[in-house]
Write a structure and sequence with these properties.
heterodimer, A: 346 residues, alpha/beta, Rossmann fold, TATA-Binding Protein, 2 domains, eight-stranded mixed beta sheet, 22% strand, globular, B: Ubiquitin-like (UB roll), 2 helices, 5 strands, 22% helix
């Protein structure tokens, strides 16, 4: 047996893939958006399975607090301060050199998302914030390229395939994401690794089905899993007729792609700081935020603002009730947006 | 009419209970449930408008009526990963 066939022998034996399915996997191109806990597990699965080409996009660097759950990284990556996409690509090249891995260290925004989708057969969600997920949803509907949504927190996770024209989209499910500062993130409420294994397993199976030409076997449901409760639930989403009233897939609105609902950032020159302004003015409760952020680091609060210095970092986040924040400790808007997403939410 | 609402993940933590019994009129909708849930569990109020609501095995929209005796469950949308 030739080495190529030998590498994939076990999954070729599996009835759902077969020799023809393996050829199709080898011809496929997949965008993995985000290379954190979801993204590393997803991209490892794709590369081991022999997907032809993987484009891997992430804006962040490997941190010690990632190693508990982000499977491709190690202590050496932390010591070298490598970008996640680069560190992952290094590992992936050793796992399977036959796959073309394209690591990109960048922020996914309305300006580049369509270019990132170009030439891809499928997009997998490995993100850590709602804002970019709604952007992926818009880009998917605009291009017709399917994507597979997923999100996790604590021991709970959710995933849903979005196939334009066939299934519900993310906005059918959540018309508007929670405002920044009102929902927990992994950095405020924590997360355990097994939920990521469970959810990425479901994402990868749907990816395989789609890429080998068995998309008709994908269930158009939202799957909710809680590994701590050992609960698993599948929810049917609305009919095609009901979807006609969805702002995105029914009415054709592309609010995130147009940049109308994306936060703005501006560098505060000479202050080693970046200001992040949400797309809409919010009315945050600083008391609620202070409670949520207390376990994360040192919190100072007065009637006008809340200041957080997360333990183990050099950042200082000053947050105002309208959702605006000044992130001190960087002049890089991409880093500042990442810090905002981690501690405030986006 | 008494409706039994199951809460999951962060929604359960914020309400401090896995199940909440809500008294709502016959014909009440998912939108009514959100308001009553926020009233009964103030800590859950900010999240209530954004909860994913399931009736039986189907995702329910705000205009959907709550069926008598039907299983109702609420999940927070989650952004981590």
């Amino acid at each position: 047996m030739d080495p190529h066939a030998s590498r994939y022998a076990k999954q070729i034996l599996f009835h759902g893939i077969g020799a023809e399915g393996q050829v199709r996997l080898g011809q496929a191109s997949v965008l993995v958006a985000g290379c954190g806990a979801l993204g590393t597990a997803l991209v490892e699965g794709l590369v081991r399975a022999g997907v032809g080409r993987v484009r891997l996009v992430d804006r962040d660097f490997v941190d010690l607090s990632n190693l508990q759950r982000q499977v491709l990284f190690d202590e050496d990556d932390v010591a070298r301060g490598l970008p996640k996409a680069v560190a992952a690509a290094n590992k992936l090249g050793r796992i399977n050199h036959e796959v073309t891995v394209e690591p990109l260290v960048t922020d996914i925004g309305p300006d580049n998302v369509l270019a990132l989708f170009q030439g891809m057969d499928l997009v997998l969600d490995g993100l850590d914030n709602f804002e970019t997920r709604f952007l992926l949803n818009d880009a998917s509907l605009e291009t017709g390229i399917p994507w597979i949504y997923a999100g996790c927190l604590g021991a709970h996770g959710q995933t849903m395939p979005v196939i334009p024209g066939q299934t519900a989209c993310l906005r059918c499910l959540i018309e508007s994401p929670p405002d920044p500062g009102t929902a927990d993130t992994c950095d405020t409420a924590g997360i355990i690794q097994p939920i990521l294994s469970a959810i990425t397993a479901l994402q990868l199976v749907n990816a395989f089905k789609l890429l080998v030409g068995r998309g008709d076997e994908i269930e158009p449901v939202l799957t909710l899993v809680d590994v701590w409760d050992n609960s698993h639930r599948k929810l049917r989403l609305g009919t095609a007729q009901e979807r006609q009233s969805c702002p995105a897939c029914g009415l054709g609105q592309r609010d995130w792609l147009k940049g109308e609902r994306v936060a703005r950032s501006s560098v505060l020159c000479g202050r080693n700081a970046v200001q992040i302004s949400p797309a809409e003015r919010l009315r945050l409760s600083l008391d609620d935020l202070a409670t949520r952020l207390a376990p994360v680091g040192t919190v100072l609060q007065n009637a006008f603002l809340l200041r957080l210095e997360p333990t183990g970092t050099d950042y200082q986040i000053t947050l105002f009730p309208d959702g605006r924040a000044i992130i001190k400790g960087t002049e890089d808007p991409v880093v500042a947006r990442s810090v905002y997403a981690r501690y405030v939410g986006a | 009419m008494l409706f039994s609402v199951q809460l999951f993940a962060r929604a359960r933590d914020l309400a401090g209970a896995p199940v909440v019994e809500l008294n709502l009129p016959v014909g009440a909708t998912v939108a009514d449930l959100r308001i009553e849930l926020g009233r009964r569990c103030p800590d859950l109020a900010p999240l209530s408008p954004r909860l994913l609501v399931a009736v039986g095995q189907a995702y329910a929209r705000d205009t959907d009526p709550l069926p008598a005796g039907g299983e109702i469950a609420c999940f927070p949308p989650v952004s981590g990963g």
